[in-house]
Amino acid sequence: MTERLLYPLINEGLKTLDEGIAYRPGDIDLVWTAGYGFPDHRGGPMWMADTIGLPVIAQRLAHHAAVRGDAFGYWTAARRLKELEAKAKGAS
After folding, report:
1. What is the largest CA-CA distance in the chain?
2. Quick check: 30 and 41 in contact, CB under 8 A?
3. pLDDT digit string, tens, across residues 23-70
4. Nearest alpha carbon to residue 73 among 25, 12, 1
5. What distances in angstroms separate CA 40 from CA 14, 18, 26, 34, 83, one per listed residue?
6. Rg, the chain, Cα only
7. 54 close to 81: Cβ distance less than 8 angstroms
8. CB-CB contact of 37 with 71 (8 Å)
């Protein structure tokens, strides 16, 4: 259940970066920890994304899209997530 809540949150954060609404991932983490009550000992959703690994997040979003459908785009990976996943795969 945590994955189904956290991964779309991370994905939306990446879309926020894509759109230029936030400049740095740390800005998003600051808003979530200081403003929305995200547990600060977890570092914020963007920090957690780095800890979990973007390829894992992209794969799990695709899994949920296949299993649950994606009529409203909840599981559609952000452009930045796709790019960073591709870069991570190329580096390994």
Report:
1. 37
2. no
3. 999 999 999 999 999 999 999 999 999 999 999 999 999 999 999 998
4. 12
5. 19, 24, 12, 8, 28
6. 13
7. yes
8. no
CA nearest neighbour of 13 among 56, 48, 62, 53: 48
Q: Output the six-digit token pair for 56.
A: 């894992």
Token pair belonging to 2: 């945590």
Task: Count how many Cα atoms sit within 13 Å of the Cα of residue 2 in the half-sphere of its side chain.
Answer: 3
Give the residue from 30, 57, 58, 56 showing the smallest Cα distance to 43.
30
| Whether the model pTM is above 0.85 | yes
Query: Looking at this protein, which amino acid is placed at residue 48?
Result: M
Amino acid at 60: R
